[in-house]
Amino acid sequence: MSAQIQLSCGANIDYCRLARDETRSALNSLLKDDGILVIPTIADPPPKLGSKEILSEDYQARAFSLLAIASMSGCCQVTLPLGSHDKCPVSVSFIARHGGDRFLLDTVQEMYTSLQEQADIAAKSNLSSNSFSQEESAEIAKEKGNIAFKEKQWHKAINFYSEAIKLCGVNATYYSNRAAAYLEQGRYCFITSFMFFNVKAYLRRGTAREMLGYYKEAIEDFRYALVLEPTNKTANLAVNRLRKLFQ
């Protein structure tokens, strides 16, 4: 056993014991009776679940730079899993003085609920951040669609607006802009339904319905547009034009 330890540590057993005692003394002096050292469980970002990275010698050497603190010093350590991020496990470790096992376990038990709540808040914050990034990406796609529309590249514009809708499906402008491109192509049947509305959306769907011969539905759309914008000339002209069909 002694020979094996000498081989693995690169020094004799007495040197290993000295290193252990000095490390334990330093930590006991730092932590005293009521101190806890909080550290990341490993030194690097955690590997993804199922990753073969953990088998590499380089990774294990870096990981044990923190994992070995408690085992070298004889101090007690508790590691708490806090969930995952981007398919990577996330955890934090707590170290207390040598012989402070009961103190550490009691403290961690008291803190656990609060730690889980903080982890949940962080996860929700990350989701909000991702949502914001999607909104930004949607705006970029919309602007690309606007450029294509100005260049009369209708199909390209429709694709960009559709991409914006996939990224952020609650923005009426994206639906309305896509409808304008469909109108230019004469593809009126693609404009008969919207999830969200603004004045332009009603005007464009009303125009599509009028072109398809759905006059009753078309006049309703133009009237809805007038509710939102009573002075809209296009809607007023359309309502007057369609009224004549019912006289």
TrEMBL record:
Which InterPro entries did the record assign?
Answer: AS_sf, TPR-like_helical_dom_sf, TPR_2, TPR_rpt
Instruction: Return the TPR repeat spans.
Output: 199-232
Q: Can you tell me which residues the record assigns to a coiled coil?
A: none
Keyword Repeat in the entry? The reply is yes
Q: What keywords were assigned to this record?
A: Repeat, TPR repeat
Gene3D superfamilies tied to this protein: Amidase signature (AS) domain, Tetratricopeptide repeat domain
A Pfam cross-reference name: TPR_11
Enumerate the PANTHER family for this protein. Answer: AMIDASE 1, OUTER ENVELOPE PROTEIN 64, CHLOROPLASTIC
Supply the name of the protein. Translocon at the outer membrane of chloroplasts 64
Please tell me the species this chain comes from: Cinnamomum micranthum f. kanehirae
